[in-house]
Design goal:
- The structure is a single chain.
- This protein is mainly alpha-helical and about 200 residues long.
- The chain has one domain (about 40-204).
- The protein has helices spanning about 10-15, 20-25, 40-65, 70-95, 105-115, 120-145, 160-175, 180-185, 195-204.
- Helix 3 (about 40-65) packs antiparallel against helix 7, helix 3 packs parallel to helix 9 and helix 4 (about 70-95) packs across helix 5.
- The longest helix has 29 residues, at about 70-95.
- It is found in: Membrane.
- This is DgyrCDS2544.
Length: about 200
Amino acid sequence: MEESCASYQCLHDDGISDENIDERLNEESNQFKSKKYGIFWAIAFILGENIGVGLIALPNAFKDQGYIGIATLPFFGFLAMYAALKLEDSYTITANQETIDDNERNQYGCIIKKAFGKHLQYLALSGGIAIFFSATLVCYGTIADLSSTRTSRTVSSPTFHSFAFSIGTFFFSYGATLSYPNIQHDMIQPSKFKLAVKIGAVGK
């Protein structure tokens, strides 16, 4: 397959207009285009990835932080949006340097491999595995505690220890950011991913 200039910036440098960029990016994968989706579904996936984790983790984080959590949540949301935009730039650079296979289901791994080499992609994979087991333990703990639930609970005041512990919980709740390159890759118009991220950040 002929190597193409798949980066938005590179296409701009070649004098190609915005209207033709998305068509140029998808011209090598027309056979997969029917399986791709628009910006509406991209926003839905962005919200679903984070809300699904947040519903489990965030209530306890708010309890541990108290009213400060009201300000902490949008702050971490901003950090997640910034990370998503940087991942979008990384995906664009990777697409510029080599043709990305439409059958590849781990675009984040491709970015890591291109940036740090072949062996570092396994370190990124280990992070995903760690998140999976962490979520499993959270679900197990929830089920185990169902028998001891009461109609009323005494909420303790936040401490330095609980505040620091909740920071990790907030990070965990936005851990789905690594799936964003896959969402962008599967869009009909990948150039609209930044808009999807910004709308998704407001929704979160």
